[in-house]
């Protein structure tokens, strides 16, 4: 068993998105991204099979797809295939937890 204290990874930068790998195993990876207000986690995709989830643990913004923007706030979660274009745009300081299976 492993306890992860998310409060310890709460750090923002006006210049770049901060990220912390919270867990990495052969089965899945969990990453905390801290996205400052106005920052963009660019829309991208991965040419592999698998799925990801993006959970908003703080703030507001939009989940982005190739041609879509879905409003997102604390406690909202996006689930998608890894090959599907995905990204995030923060309206306020925003913290997200991304889980990727299998890990890349």
Short overview:
With 104 residues, the protein is mostly beta strands. It contains no helices and nine strands.
Can you put this structure into words, describing what you see?
The protein has about 100 residues and is mainly beta. It has a single domain (about 15-100), classed as Jelly Rolls (Sandwich), CATH 2.60.120. Helices cover about 0% and strands about 55% of the residues. It is built from no helices and 9 strands. The strands form 2 sheets. It has a 5-stranded antiparallel sheet with strand order 1-2-9-4-7, with no helix packed on it.
End-to-end separation: 22 Å
Parts with pLDDT < 50 across at least 5 consecutive residues: none
**Pairing-aware structural class of the strands and helices?**
mainly beta
CATH topology: Jelly Rolls
Major pleated sheet: 5 strands, antiparallel
Along the chain, the helix and strand elements come as EEEEEEEEE
Provide the number of structural domains.
Answer: 1
The top-level CATH class is Mainly Beta
Output the number of helix runs.
0
What does the radius of gyration come to? Answer: 13 Å
Number of strands: 9
Outline: globular
Amount of helix: under 10%
Mean pLDDT: 96
The CATH homology group name: Jelly Rolls
Strand content: over 45%
The CATH architecture category equals: Sandwich
Strand numbers in spatial order across the main sheet:
1-2-9-4-7
């Amino acid at each position: 068993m492993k306890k992860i204290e998310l409060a310890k990874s709460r750090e923002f930068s006006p210049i770049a998105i901060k990220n912390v790998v919270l867990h990495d195993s052969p089965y899945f990876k969990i990453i905390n991204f801290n996205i400052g207000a106005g920052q963009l986690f660019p829309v991208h995709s991965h040419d592999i099979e698998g799925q990801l989830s993006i959970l908003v643990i703080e703030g507001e913004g939009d989940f982005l797809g190739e041609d879509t923007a879905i409003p997102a706030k604390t406690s909202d979660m996006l689930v998608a295939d890894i090959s599907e274009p995905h990204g995030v745009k923060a309206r306020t300081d925003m913290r997200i937890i991304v889980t990727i299976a299998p890990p890349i």
